[in-house]
Design goal:
A hairpin with a 2-residue loop joins β4 (68-75) and β5 (78-82). The strands form 4 sheets. The chain has a 5-stranded antiparallel beta sheet with strand order 6-5-4-1-7, with no helix packed on it. It has one helix spanning 3-29, and strands at residues 37-41, 46-49, 58-62, 68-75, 78-82, 88-92, 96-97, 101-104, 109-112, 121-125, 130-135, 142-147, 150-155, 159-160. By secondary structure, the protein is α+β, with helices and mostly antiparallel strands. The chain starts with a helix and ends in a 9-residue tail after the last strand. 25% of the residues are buried. It has 3 domains: 1-30; 37-99, SH3 Domains (SH3 type barrels); 102-160, SH3 Domains (SH3 type barrels, Roll), CATH 2.30.30.40. Keywords: Signal. Pfam families: SH3_4 (PF06347). This is SH3b domain-containing protein. Residues 1-27 form the signal peptide.
Length: 169
């Protein structure tokens, strides 16, 4: 084996070993839950920090309990989140809940009694309304939500808090 092939083989083996050890380290330090994923804010006041720890400055304070956010990274007990407007930062895992909610986007939206545009309305929802996510059947673009006691169906394109291909029962 010539020296060029030997060096290429050593480099390839080194990269494989580094990749495996990095994946093992991530699996041990993370929650084991998929990234990204949607969660909600557990408290009525949550500090969004510049980095993963209390020594980092607070950049924003959320004042909406059950606001949906997307976890995009993890470091120890800290979660990097993104909100519906694209703001990102770090919060402690204790400030997050696995409960699911959505936030209505865009113009006035019509909550439907059935998952079809011809169904009768059950309510009209303004942008920014936070609703509890009840179900998103597989193979459909509709999800059932509960907006302050008004249950009905909205298309996934009308709110933020669910992935386009995600199903939930």
């Amino acid at each position: 084996m010539n020296s060029k092939k030997l060096m290429t083989s050593i480099l390839l083996i080194s990269l494989i070993v580094l990749g495996v050890s990095s994946a093992v380290a991530q699996a041990r330090s993370g929650s084991g839950l998929p990234l990204p994923r949607f969660v909600t804010l557990r408290a009525g006041e949550v500090n969004l920090r510049a980095g993963p720890g209390v020594r980092y400055p607070v950049e924003w304070v959320y004042k909406k309990r059950n606001l949906p956010v997307e976890v995009v990274a993890e470091y120890d007990t800290w979660r990097k989140i993104r909100d519906w407007q694209g703001t990102q930062g770090w919060v402690h895992q204790g400030m997050l809940s696995g409960k699911r909610s959505v936030i209505v986007m865009g113009d006035l939206r019509t909550l439907r009694r059935e998952p079809k545009t011809s169904a009768s309305p059950s309510a009209r929802l303004e942008e920014g309304v936070i609703a509890r996510l009840l179900e998103c059947p597989q193979g459909t673009t509709w999800c059932k939500i509960d907006a302050d006691g008004y249950e009905g169906w909205l298309r996934k394109a009308e709110f933020w808090g669910v992935y386009s291909e995600e199903s939930l029962k």
